Amino acid sequence: xxxxxxxxxxxxxxxxxxxxxxxxxxxxxxxxxxxxxxxxxxxxxxxxxxxxxxxxxxxxxxxxxxxxxxxxxxxxxxxxxxxxxxxxxxxxxxxxxxxxxxxxxxxxxxxxxxxxxxxxxxxxxxxxxxxxxxxxxxxxxxxxxxxxxxxxxxxxxxxxxxxxxxxxxxxxxxxxxxxxxxxxxxxxxxxxxxxxxxxxxxxxxxxxxxxxxxxxxxxxxxxxxxxxxxxxxxxxxxxxxxxxxxxxxxxxxxxxxxxxxxxxxxxxxxxxxxxxxxxxxxxxxxxxxxxxxxxxxxxxxxxxxxxxxxxxxxxxxxxxxxxxxxxxxxxxxxxxxxxxxxxxxxxxxxxxxxxxxxxxxxxxxxxxxxxxxxxxxxxxxxxxxxxxxxxxxxxxxxxxxx
Length: 402
Ligand SMILES: [Zn+2]
Hints:
Blueprint: H1 2-25, E1 27-37, E2 40-47, E3 53-59, E4 64-71, E5 73-75, H2 77-82, E6 84-86, E7 92-101, E8 104-111, E9 116-122, E10 127-133, H3 140-160, H4 167-178, E11 183-188, H5 206-224, E12 228-231, H6 241-250, E13 255-262, E14 272-277, H7 283-293, H8 297-302, H9 304-311, H10 316-334, E15 342-348, E16 360-367, H11 371-378, H12 380-401
Parallel strand pairs: 1-5, 11-12, 11-13, 13-16, 14-15
Antiparallel strand pairs: 1-2, 2-10, 3-4, 4-8, 6-7, 7-8, 9-10, 14-16
Helix pairs in contact: 3-4, 5-12, 10-12
The chain binds zinc ion.
């Protein structure tokens, strides 16, 4: 009896130990957030650490389910309480989270019908972002246009006798036919608890500078064009990076421009640069992306595989053209008044641009780490001119589509 008791105690002890060690290593599904609109929904799963997960889709007659199995993960009290999130829109029915197995948390998205969706992960903190489109991304109209384009191409082939082989030319024709600009989203970076970069000499906050430039840009667009203009924020509030593109997608914006100012370790550097989303090996661009993403430079490298996936769905070539127009025209205008260095059109993996369905760029209007540049950015006249320069860039881009 005694020996049995001891054995029992030892086994119990081991079991408790195993349970504890599993617990200690478990990742927490902290929260399920969502931004839901008429024909677009973005769901964000917040996790306490990077998680291994698998996803699969189950199609039935009356419903389609999309599963995420998160390995070694348990639900937080908040998620347990949340249980089922029910949607009122036509395409997504609900989201449920449950402890599928002791160490596997399962998140199920249930749809009324099969819809276009994609997901990607973001770091620091680790989160899985799922985009669901209630409409078809390549809708009927664009298919029609493609046929029209094919016809035009054939006509051209007959006329010239040589088939169109230049990729650039073919592409430029496609863009003329398929792109129109009606709506634009301006995204003033940072806000609220996130001040962004801070001036080295006068402690100027990036969030204030960029909101002012964005408002002025909106003013010019409203005054001189018929574009619908939206801002991701029009006051000093914090908005998560993933919510900004979600907003642009929900508005079905045709262009997205995020406005920033940065700071460099080298205080001599100043000037204007425009970024489009892509992977880069340029240390300077990596450093800027890391600071704008509020992440480490190492995690930028981890984005490489994600970006390969993204490249397939984003309007990257168009974003690059948009970036060039912004860069060239802003500097051309600004240089009438100031000696302002051209820091170039660059590419970098900015979280805020990931998942945007439209041409999207991020401008770094100047460096708050340089004394002259910080003084310029503090001047309302300069900010007004930067805004007008960006406005001219947007117009030049739209004109290039005609
Ligand atoms: Zn910034």
